[in-house]
Amino acid sequence: MTTDGGIFDPFGTLGQALWICGGQWAGKSTVSRLLARRHGITVYHYDFHDARAHQDRRVAHRVGNGLPTADPDPDTVWVDTTPGRMAADTIAGFPARFEWALDDLRALVSGRPILAEGWGLRPELVAPLLDSPRRMIVMVPTDDFREHQLRVLPRAAAVVHRVSDPERARRNRIERDRLVAEDAVRVAKRLGVRVLEVDGSRDAEAVADVVAGHFGPYLA
């Protein structure tokens, strides 16, 4: 079986999936968990799999491209670069990582929709799977809400790796995240996918109401 976009979908999971992507720290995971509890759907957390379960595929991908198997030096990734370069590299890496996520999703079978959420589930990558743009929503934080998240969520501002200049690495990461989110918004608008700006004026339950309303009959 394939989707309308010709993508291998043996159990019909991808064609029936719902998708939340967008910027870091917009509340995608929290909203997804709320929808799972409310509607009895299964949630696939892209970020968790991407950071952990896909390491073997990441190494194989490097070998296939003639690159060292080890992770790049943290200073090279976070310090000795620019946010623009970091954002461009991140966006360029999403297609390969998306294929790994699709492999995970293909193996899932459920009588209810699978909701996949994560910043790497980019609109241009998901679009060929969609029979309607209502199956996807892009959540992004406003600049003020991003700053709020950085203040109240220690993990939001943390740089996991040891680097020579933690403050510069932190600033680079924050600006990279903003640029990647901006790009997702531009692409989503071009493709007719809804963008939901999260500004902190509504709590997570209220944001989940908005997202549930967008998905509408798919959650019924």
Distance between the termini: 25 Å
Q: How many beta-strand runs?
A: 5
Helical element count? 11
Say what oligomer this is: single chain
Biggest sheet record? 5 strands, parallel
Strand neighbour order, sheet with most strands: 2-3-1-4-5
What fraction strand? 5-15%
Helical content band: 40-55%
Classification by helices and strands: alpha/beta
State the shape.
globular
Mean pLDDT: 91
Summarize the structure.
The protein is of the alpha/beta class and 220 residues long. The chain has helices at residues 13-16, 28-39, 46-53, 55-64, 74-78, 83-106, 123-126, 143-152, 154-157, 166-191, 204-215; strands at 18-22, 42-45, 114-117, 136-141, 194-198. The chain has a five-stranded parallel sheet.
